[in-house]
Design brief:
Mean pLDDT: 94
Strand content: 15-25%
Structural class: alpha+beta
Shape: elongated
Largest sheet: 5 strands, mixed
Oligomer: single chain
Number of helices: 15
Order of helices and strands: HHEHEHEEEHHHHEEHHEHEEEHEEHHEH
Radius of gyration: 27 Å
Low-confidence stretches: none
């Protein structure tokens, strides 16, 4: 381990006092959950701590506790939800605040003694390949990692911090990066932080890491077969961009190791003047589609937002607007920001027909366009009929204004757009004052 890595480790490794507080808090909450179950006459219940807190692979300041309450697989789903929420709600009465969360089934989220606690019901299945609900495999992951991670915890911490600082960490659908479990598996497979970086520096798409022989084919750029379920790719959520970002970060760090690779630089918000200056320097066109954020969980809304983003890009390019890039920012509002080479294009469009020698189709094309009063010109070029016709939309704003609902939007996004939306062009994006959006623009422009 390099001296700079030891220095970084000293700043991210939890102190003994911090660990003791976590263990004490988790132990209390587990014992209380068991007491509540007994009091409510809920039998055959087991409670355990899972996740990085249970495996000693959490970074200092990360106060998350995942407490799983497992029930016999014979229990009906509605009873699992009822009992899980009952125990969770009773336990949450001791916390500072709480709410219900929703994944495949509801669970309880609470804040207790400075910790963000998830109290999750699951089935106590005997085989991770035969789960009843998606969370049922988590205890298997926990057991596998705990049995193999001893002595490698520091390497996991370094890899997590390296990924976080580089923007490659986080498996939630808004990030599409590396999960904590995937990070731990990489360390177990390759043996150290350094070995992971050296291996990843030469990865190519469809990279395979097989803890088990897979029972199906996968198409994702990184394929890490779940050691508890041969039919699952642990890296399924990882996007090609984040896969390649990690490869690039590994190469750069190995070439010149620096402490800065472990610290995340947060872009400051841009002022009005700075935004205008950057727009003037780029001499491109900026369009922003703004609407209220749908009130659904992130794992539902983000796939819809990315689907909308791709569909809007396709719409613009189909109508001959030259796209540079686009990006989505989400706060109280959603803002899809689009950069074009030019947001206004010529009224005239060149519409090419069939070759003249293809008589039937050529004559149909000629008859269609020669008598139209709005055709600017009609001629033969490279053996084909060409009609110069007027465009329906000459500005990106008018195109989006009239055709946004023809895009693939998703149910909740479509509803939000039908309620209200704004299209802001150029300097009009200065109307968006949210400092977090202004920070997004700092990285976008």
């Amino acid at each position: 381990m390099l001296p700079l890595e030891k220095k970084v480790l000293g700043s991210i490794k939890p102190s003994l006092e911090e660990k003791e507080k976590l263990e004490k808090t988790a132990g209390y909450l587990i014992s209380r959950a068991i007491q509540i179950a007994k009091k409510e006459h809920i039998t055959d219940v087991k409670v355990q701590l899972v996740g990085s807190a249970a495996r000693n692979t959490w970074i200092t300041g990360t106060h998350d506790l995942d407490i799983f309450i497992s029930f016999d697989p014979s229990l009906p789903r509605e009873k699992l939800e009822e009992y899980g929420l009952l125990i969770g709600h009773e336990l949450a009465k001791e916390g500072r605040s709480w709410e219900e969360g929703y994944a495949e089934h509801p669970y309880t989220k609470m804040n207790y003694a400075g910790f963000d606690v998830d109290i999750v019901p699951c089935y106590r299945v005997t085989d991770a390949s035969r789960i009843i609900s998606a969370v049922d495999r988590t205890p298997f992951h926990n057991r596998f990692i705990k049995e193999r991670i001893k002595g490698l915890e520091d390497d996991v911490l370094l890899l997590k911090q390296f990924m976080k600082a580089g923007g490659a960490y986080g498996s939630e659908l808004k990030t599409r990066g590396f999960s904590g479990y995937l990070t731990e598996l990489l360390i177990i497979h390759y043996g150290s932080f350094k070995n992971v970086l050296e291996a990843a520096a030469v990865w190519e798409p469809k990279q395979k890491i097989e803890f088990l022989k897979p029972t199906k084919e996968f198409i994702e750029p990184l394929q890490v077969i779940d050691p508890t379920d041969a039919g699952r790719n642990v890296a399924a959520a990882l996007s090609l961009n984040k896969f390649c970002l990690f490869i690039a970060l590994c190469r750069q760090y190995l070439e010149e190791p620096k402490e800065s690779y472990f610290s995340r630089k947060i872009a400051p918000p841009l002022s009005d003047g700075e935004i205008i200056q950057r727009m003037n320097e780029r001499k491109s066109s900026i369009i922003a589609l703004k609407f209220h954020s749908p009130e659904v969980v992130e794992d539902i809304v983000y796939p819809q937002l990315f689907k909308m983003q791709k569909s809007v890009e396709a719409l613009l390019e189909k109508q001959d607007f030259q796209l540079i890039k686009s990006g989505i920012w989400v706060g109280r509002d959603v803002v899809l920001t689009i950069e074009l080479e030019n947001s206004q294009i010529a009224t005239v469009k060149k519409h090419r027909g069939p070759p003249v020698w293809v008589k039937q189709h050529a004559e149909m094309f000629r008859e269609k366009y020669t008598d139209r009063t709005d055709v600017f010109a009609f001629y033969i070029e490279d053996g084909k009929y060409v009609a110069e016709v007027p465009r329906k939309y000459t500005t990106a704003s008018s195109l989006l204004e009239n055709e946004i609902h023809s895009c693939s939007l998703g149910k909740q996004v479509s509803k939000s757009l039908k309620d209200k939306y704004e299209i802001l062009s150029g300097k009009n994006i200065l109307q968006i004052k949210d400092i977090n959006y202004r920070a997004f623009l700092n990285e976008f422009l």
